[in-house]
Amino acid sequence: MTNTEISSIIANCLSIDSNAAEAYQRLADAADDPQLRDFWNQMAGEETTHIDYWKTLAALANRSSLPQVFDEPATVLDELTHLADKSRTLLEEPIENLGLKDAFILAYRLEFFMLHPAFETLFHALRSSTSNKSPEDEYEEHVDRFIAMLSIYDHLTPEFQLISETLKRLWKENKKLAHQAMKDPLTGLFNRRGFLQISEQLLYVARRGRNTICLLMIDIDDFKAINDSLGHLQGDSVLKGVADRLVGAIRASDVVARFGGEEFVVLLFATGSESIAALAEKIRNTVSGDEFDGNRVTVSVGASNCIVPTDVDRDLRHLIRTADRRMYLAKAAGKNRVVRSD
Question: Which are the contacts of 116, defined by CB distance < 8 A and separation ≥ 6?
Answer without folding.
Answer: 79, 80, 83
